[in-house]
Amino acid sequence: MAIRVMLFDERGRLAAQGNEDLLARFHDQGGFAWIDICGAQSQIEAAALGPFGLNPLAHRDAQRQRHPAKYEAFQDHVFLLMHELTREAVHDRISRHQLGIFASGSFLITRHDLPSESVEKYWDQTAGQQQLPRGGIGQLCYFLLRGLADRYLPLMYDIEQRLGEIEDEIFESTSDDLLSELINYNSQLKKARRAYVYQHGVIQELMGGHDHALLAFDEHELTDLYEHFERLASMANLYQELTSDLINGFISVSAHRTNNIMKLLTIVTAIFLPLSLIAGIYGMNFENMPELRWRYGYFGVLAFMLVFVAGGLAWIRHKKWL
């Protein structure tokens, strides 16, 4: 359903549940309402939300595909634009979508283009309990914010675990797949950190003003939410630095491995180049070469080559080049 509605009486008890047709009843009788909009057509959405008098610029921001998290307070409602993980999000692909929240003392409007895990969770919970939370719309709004924040933490723990595994694999792996994975994590964490910082700022603004009194937010709950996003931003920053260190470490290990290979090839070349020179000299077809008619010339040259190779290897080991 693109638009679904829950109506509550003045005591917060669930009175009706259905589609946008219930909105006329809300405007006539009052009480409380939760309107959830998921991917509705613009005309239908505009017709349903028109009577609520939402700020058109804020509504336009909520409809945009990409916009930084923000908070705005108006005379009779507040607007929160948050970033929530999609259902497909995993630790190596931190995909997000926007969740727009318009809230006042009597209504809550959640607007999103993709399915929202937080909205689904508390929609079902509210429908099952047949009433609003004790704190009303403000409490419900907090639950949604906390729900989307809580989904980030397990994902960050997964990233931490994987980075620890990569740290152990760096010295054993000879493939560039680890480097590609680290570069991906670096990019994902950079974007995630920006999202956390923006949302951390949203909660900070909400705490710093007096507008949150409109929804009767609990200051302790807001403080807890603020600290949660602060921790997420700190973790993203820490893991991004760790990822950068691992990238540099992988490159250093690869360079060291390459240097060892080049050193070995150089040693082999240095030993066998004189042998090639000797073979080249005695491979010439001049008639007046004294050693060509020497009975032990072949064995003498081979013996000289073996002595040269043994002496070269002994000298290299003496210099500790190998």
TrEMBL record:
Its main location: membrane. Pfam families: CorA. Signal peptide: none annotated. The keyword Ribosomal protein does not apply. It is found in: Cell membrane; Membrane. The chain crosses the membrane at residues 264-284, 296-316. Keywords: Cell membrane, Ion transport, Magnesium, Membrane, Transmembrane, Transmembrane helix, Transport. InterPro entries: CorA_cytoplasmic_dom (IPR045861), CorA_TM1_TM2 (IPR045863), Mg/Co-transport_prot_CorA (IPR004488), MgTranspt_CorA/ZnTranspt_ZntB (IPR002523). The keyword Thylakoid does not apply. It is a multi-pass membrane protein. Belongs to the CorA metal ion transporter (MIT) (TC 1.A.35) family. Mediates influx of magnesium ions. This is Magnesium transport protein CorA. It comes from Biformimicrobium ophioploci. The gene is corA.
